[in-house]
């Protein structure tokens, strides 16, 4: 009688274990049941653009920025686009245009973050359109542009040229929307006083 009781109890535990395992297995999604491994992406471009123009618009439908360049190579494994000879035109809500050029750029986060490298130059478009040339220009070796937030920053040396002189500094943060420029450290300038 003891052996029959032990067998029944063992059978009950076995049935409950199988039922629990079956319930767990059925609760898994179909992708988990098939055990299909996700493909690993190699660092190879999925598209290349030559002599391109890309325009990014905000939620209001108005353009936030426009990028042109000699070549763009996009890598799907990192979601990063490498750009040669970039020209970034940042457009404020007030319609003011800031032009940023460089030798190379790297666009990340679907274009919301752009790293510009090599001979970076920044100037306002209104000076150029008036035929006066870039009266106020900014030169540095690297600049990180946060497009969605409307600002750019660097820790590199910066040279700002204006009609009345030259300002040098190490590092800056520029807010395009508010036209606010913050120089981080080692600020020095050479200015010409107006006659009179």
Report on this structure:
The chain has 196 residues and is α+β, with helices and mostly antiparallel strands. The protein has 2 domains: 2-34; 47-190, Sandwich (lipopolysaccharide transport protein A fold). It has 3 helices and 11 strands; from the N terminus they run ααβββββββαββββ. It has helices spanning 2-27, 30-34, 125-129, and strands spanning 47-57, 63-75, 80-84, 87-91, 97-101, 104-108, 113-124, 137-146, 151-162, 165-175, 180-191. The protein has a 6-stranded antiparallel beta barrel. A hairpin with a 4-residue loop joins β2 (63-75) and β3. It is elongated and about 115 Å long. 17% of the residues are buried.
Q: Return the CATH topology of the largest domain.
A: lipopolysaccharide transport protein A fold
Q: Give the overall shape, derived from the CA principal axes.
A: elongated
Low-confidence stretches: none
What percent of residues adopt helix (DSSP H or I)? 10-25%
Oligomer: single chain
Strand order of the largest sheet: 2-3-6-7-5-4
Could you tell me how far the N terminus lies from the C terminus, measured between alpha carbons in angstroms? 121 Å
Count of folded domains: 2
CATH homology superfamily name of the largest domain: Lipopolysaccharide (LPS) transport protein A like domain
Report the average pLDDT across residues: 80
- Beta content comes to over 45%
At the first level of CATH, what is the class of the largest domain? Mainly Beta
User: What is Rg?
Assistant: 29 Å
- Could you give the order of the helices and strands? HHEEEEEEEHEEEE
> What profile does the largest beta sheet have?
6 strands, antiparallel, barrel
In the CATH hierarchy, the architecture of the largest domain is Sandwich
Number of separate strands: 11
């Amino acid at each position: 009688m003891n052996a029959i009781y032990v067998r029944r109890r063992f059978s009950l535990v076995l049935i409950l274990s199988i039922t629990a395992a079956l319930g767990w297995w059925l609760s898994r999604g179909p992708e988990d049941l098939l055990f299909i491994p996700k493909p690993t992406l190699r660092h190879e471009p999925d598209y290349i653009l030559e002599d391109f123009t890309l325009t990014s618009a905000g939620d209001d439908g108005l353009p936030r920025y426009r990028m042109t360049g000699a070549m763009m190579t996009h890598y799907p494994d990192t979601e990063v686009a490498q750009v040669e000879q970039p020209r970034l035109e940042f457009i404020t809500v007030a319609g003011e245009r800031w032009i940023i050029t460089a030798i190379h750029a790297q666009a990340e986060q679907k274009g919301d973050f752009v790293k510009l490298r090599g001979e970076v130059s920044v100037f306002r478009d209104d000076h150029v359109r008036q035929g006066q040339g870039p009266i106020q220009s900014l030169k540095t070796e690297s600049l990180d542009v946060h497009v969605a937030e409307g600002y750019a920053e660097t820790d590199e040396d910066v040279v700002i040229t204006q009609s009345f002189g030259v300002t040098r500094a190490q590092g800056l943060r520029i807010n395009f929307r508010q036209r606010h420029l913050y120089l981080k450290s080692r600020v020095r300038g050479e200015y010409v006083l107006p006659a009179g």
